[in-house]
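Hello K.,

You asked for the raw outputs rather than the summary table, so here they are, unedited. I folded two proteins back to back in the same session to keep the settings identical. This is the first:
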Amino acid sequence: MQLPLISTVGVTVSKLVILKFGAGKFAEGFPVTLQIGMETTRPSSEVTGELPPDSELPLIFSRWQAIYRSLDLPSRPIGIPKSSAPLGGIEACSQAAGQLRARLNHWLQAESFRPIREQWLEKLQPAETIRVILQTTDLQLQQLPWHLWDLIERYPKAEFAFSTVTYEQINFAAASTPSVKILALLGDSTGIDIKTDRALLERLPDATITFLAEPARKDLTDQIWEQNWDILFFAGHSASSGTRETGRIYINSTENLTIHELRYALKKAVARGLKLAIFNSCDGLGLAREFADLQIPQMIVMREPVPDRVAQEFLKYFLEAFARNEPLYLAVREARERLQSLEGQFPCATWLPVIYQNLAETPMTWVAARTDSRRAPARVRHQIGLISLISVGIALLIMSIRYLGVLQPLELQAFDQLLQLRPQEKPDSRLLVVTITEADVQAQAQETRRGSLSDESLAQLLEKLASYQPLVIGLDIYRDYPVAKNLPWLSAYMQQNDRLVTICKVSDPQAGRVGVAPPPEIPSDRLGFSDLILDSDGVVRRQLLALTPPPASTCTAAYAFSMQLALRYLAAQNTSQGVLQETSLETSQNQLLQFTANGAWQLGKVHFQPIAAHTGGYQGIDAWGHQILLNYRAYHSPQEAIPQVTLSQVLSDQVDANQIKDRVVLIGTTAESFQDYSLTPYRTHQGMTQKVPGVILQAQMTSQLISAALAERPLLWTWTLWQEMIWVMAWSVTGGLLSQFVRRLPMGVMAVGGAIVILYGICLVVLIQWSGWIPLVPAALVLVSSSGIVYIKTYHIKTLAESQSLERSLRRSS
């Protein structure tokens, strides 16, 4: 059976971005809705925004258009009036284009449009293939050069297209054909060269092309009506009406047609499988807008009068890319951008090609079926192909199961084991934890105490610490009550000392989270929330850096306690060293923390990229706020990695001043009666999960941020979904090939076992050396599964062959 060469399924899964423009005008603004999802699936996220009024933008566009159309360029329009005198040369056109580009991007950076921009940057990665659909019927919006939007330019695999508000999927039975069927209509060629277009089409591989050179109307209609076509191509003169609502093509020197006059024939062609129409002619917006009613899947048109040379070069570049099976959108982008070499002679050539898309359809691809028997013997090639197909299928199945979260508990356990095998690190000497032990709590029996630390003891402790000059003091104790009236010094200290940071807990009635209010004396800029992210097994493996508190929360801190401590330590260090200007601590913090265009944070020398719902072994988690993976400082235990002294030791002067000077000092309880303990990924020698006090956990988080910002210890990172998919598929194919070529069962088991050891070693080395968390459990599962299934298949075939051989022998002997 011969496979068809046209496919409507993309070679790789890509992202689909839809920008819906609501009813509006440039004088009033436009409501906009952004939807983002995987190709062929429902959108996974949606956000709304608004583009503000801008009456100047259409005027700037009209000025550029007038200058462009007044240029004396050899092009393919008919019926487009030119100015009686040029409005400027190439330089004037380029200047007008630059003004239009600047104005467009200024408009798209409006504050009311920021939610859409931020959602784009958060959900989309520059390496992803992205189709951007601008869904609008407003002609002025469609005329704008959207390819110059800085977001589209920033994503090298993104291309935009227009779509109407109404669309419909066309159901047709795709015919199995040995080649791509193209109907090439070569219309009126007066004054232009369309022979080059024909020559370019004739060089296409695996294509059957029917050329109609200046046909009569009846001949054209008959050809469209009577055969199935994959692509309709037109080269010649065309024009749009003054309103750009209709288009007209000139099929010969005496006849011209609107799309409406070919309506019935074209509807028949679409129903039979017409997937793409290319109009390599001038002023095609009217053609596209009229063609959209016929629900053709894709169209490529030229938005303005196109010079003959530009039309030919675009067609050449597009066909080269498309025929080598590049996705249609990327082929258009590549061809469009390669036109830049002509812009010295033909300004704004890269502005002209544009795609019109039926939103209900998926772009076609060009699939060339080639057979090369010289590469390998047919039998080996068939075996390897079959094994690869089985292995890929197993990998897709396992990764699908993983995506549903079924493997998450196993992956987290494997991750914990790898963490514990890392070599030990030195304790972080920049931090010191003042612990309030059970004995310290009992020592305050004569004092008025509402928590683990009385006001009198806190006042003594802060006074002692202040004399040792720490850079930052973090009070990891809830104090939702005011200081006693008999301690005005403590109240004033807490209000005025900008080195003191305290905690509160965010409440969210809708989520059932009970909060704790902050100390009344502490201003909001010195508050940090203490909220933790717990996995399903209660273990803390993630760190929450920031969140947006609900309106009803009494704790309004936007940054985590650890983040506040790290920021203030780094700001104080840099200020003292002259790196930052001698300003307030808050100003220094703002200089340190920057926000990048892709939604990450820049702190010192490191990017803090927030984790998503599917990150590493995490699948489908609630990635609220700004979360990162917690890279515990490896030591005998997480608690021993942080230097500690007790409250009684500080109050009795049993500490060295150098233990406190220029450090981050955290104060918190370790008394078990207060039950402020959290589970960690580490295990005791008895196999029990290690618990650490909350203040030690906060110190671990603070240490991670400071070390990462100073480029001393990297953050934990994971691969993208596609990198993980390739990794898992590679191990699946490895398992299949091992079973295929190591036929003996004992040797095969040893080979697979050795591969698992290698896999485990690679994952451990990557974690130790580069702090990377790469898939271990899915890779091991596909390795075992593919090797087992391929072995069973091979054993079954071998057994069947031996049985048939034995049967033949018995027949001969009888």
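The second followed immediately with the same parameters:
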Amino acid sequence: MLRAAWKSLLGRKLRLLMSTFAIILGVAFVAGTLIFTDTLGRSFTALFASSVGDVVVRPAGGTRDGQPTTRTVPAPLLDDLATVPGALRVDGNVRTFGVFVVGKDGKVVGGQGAPGLGLNYTGAPAGHGLKGLTVVDGHPPRHRGQVALDRKTAQRAGYRIGDRVHLVTTGAQAVLHPVLVGLAAFGDGGSTNGATITLFDTATAQRLFLGGRGAFSDVWVTAEPGVSEQQLRDQVAGALPKGYAAVTGDAAAKQEASDLQKALSFITTFLLIFAGIALVVGSFLIVNTFSILVAQRGRELALLRALGASRGQVTRSVLFEAVVLGAVGSTLGLGVGVLLAMGIRALFATFGLDLSGAGLVFAPRTVLASYAVGILVTVLAAYLPARRSRRIPPMAALRDDVALPESALHRRLAVGALLVAGGIGCLMTGLYGAVASPAWWVGGGVLATLLGVAAAGAVIGRPFMAGAGLVYRRLFGTIGLLAGQNAVRNPRRTAATASALMIGLALVTTMAIVGASAKRSVDNAIAQNFLGDLVVSNALAQPFSPSIGDRVKRTPGVTAVTRVRYALGKVDGHREGLVGVSAGSLRDVVRIRMVAGSASALHDGTVLVSRRQARGSGLHVGDTVRFLVPTGTKSYRVAGVYAPNPMLGYSFTTTLGTLSQAGFPPEDNYLLVSVGPGASPAHVQRAIERETAALPTVTVKNQQEYAAAQRAPIDKLLALIYALLGLALVIAVLGIVNTLALSVIERTREVGLLRAIGLSRAQLRRMVRLEAVAIAVLGAVLGVGLGVLFGVALMTSLKDQGLDVIWVPAGQLAAFVAASGLVGVLAAVLPARRAARLDVLQAIATE
């Protein structure tokens, strides 16, 4: 039986290779994702290990989410720490975000995701004696007007030692032009991972970023030889006054790495979702492939049964082929996964997360997961055809008629109906119910609905195929009649083939509706809620210096400037965003529809709450909400509840003074500008652009340009998703090719007879193409229909988040259906060519 299985594998290489392609893509996604995330984790672990001392002293309490804060450690405390037993040296650090290097070409280096760090240079060693950031060329900055850059940033910017560097900061001084005096690098394997690092002398860093105070962001205490981090930490903690805390470098590095990896965990989830989609779609191709094997080997398997092979041996022989196929696909998928990981690394480098200096991590779990996924999916997909082969009696298999009994279709309809009902229930629960993990409910509901329609497709697709047959007969005569009959000859296999395309198009349609609705919601929100004339923002989606707002205020024609600042805190352990605004002028530039309370009641120590947040948290006007912020836990009174307003961004809105008291630095995210009645907004815009010409990070937009800028990220995300879903559609096309190839093989004698009575090769090719178009359009119609259902349901659930426009792009969906017909024509090329090339006499003689 093993020899027979091997011969079966080797005798059908092309068809098996096509099925292997489905496994390769799915496994490649799994392997590539694991390789990339392991590489990402190791790289950041090495970076954070080189970025902390043996013991780190910092203000106690408050949030520590890697965001800037005005809380500091006073300089006199360093003298006290220097006397602690076991302390070798004590170094104060000044750290800020938002210092960006502008290259010689006038473009900002980095900034697309990775931060622009500004630090004072101390030369202190990192924990466990590792070399931290060290000046390796030139010398450290020693006074005002000198800086050092990390070596990679200087190279990308085109600067050499002695050049004058163009810097943009979020501090009070927005533009700096110091001289580059040194280049720095991590000495023990650390990498900047795309971040840019600018080093100042301590006095200059304090003047620029701490308002000239003699203080530090945190303090490193280096241990003497033989003193452990924990021992030194205990000694340091005993010497600290109230309000300050000491942690070991290992604990600090682990916390920072853990926080960042949690923030980046969406990358793993995002990519593994597409791996699952590829494997689900590939399963339909594998099912059809093994149906082909069983059909082709029907007589062979019957003879083996007659010679004494048991039903179990027949089943195991088919499953053995599946194991071999899965192992081959997994092996090739691992190799493609390495290439995919390199591609993902290059892709994220364009967004600022540059891991080019880190080698790929190929962990044992990647190999185990890849083979487990590849082999398991293949065996499960092959089980049904294998089981079907053992259910056919030997004498029946010796004949050509091996079709399943009709009752099986009714059972599939019942199972499909149950899956659809359960899937829609899960989908609605995830979208509208108060459940712990709504994403899992939604994902499970979508999958169950798709599988339910696929299971019932053999029945619900019959009316469509019958209608297609009637249309074909009218348009193409006898050839169309034959094509229509061929498409419904094996409804189960036709439905499985159409279902593979259905899944891909259902997801593409969903994303098309989400994208179109989101973009129209953005346009609608800006048109209805933005009352100002211009928006000043940062092209890097980062804060900018408050001095820019002062400049804009002085621009002729400007009557009001509303500052908008974003911050993150925690409410009941959950991260929540705070929007800080200039309370007095907020209503002049943003139309706020209050549900309860009044926007005029907003002042320091109060918040306005979105309706959705108020409902979810049970908040009412006059209630108190407790926020964990950098300065500790603060209580804010609810001054009002407002309807969804995308211009405000987060669920809580407060004043600039409240953010300042909470310990957030005075850095603006947006400026909403109002132009006077007698001034031209276009002229004022050009005047502001001239005023900010030295700041390439700052952009000035009118309402239409601002809306276009908000739509751009949606288009980029959709393009990425379409590209990934395109791989699933490729697998679906291979499924159509497989089904048509099986159709030709099963009808070899019929094809010969048709050719013998006068059917031309061109007519035969047309018949196969029409059959392919019918299958493809069936999948498209089902997919687009389900996609509309998913898309509308998803957008309806997001109405309270400001996405209140539901738009179904009918033209785009019609194009999907038309493109599917073209896909059917292309998929039929090889099977039709093979059918046309069959020798007539040999075909007639085929048993």
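Confidence is low (pLDDT under 50) at residues 401-407.

Happy to rerun anything if the numbers look odd on your end.

Regards,
P.
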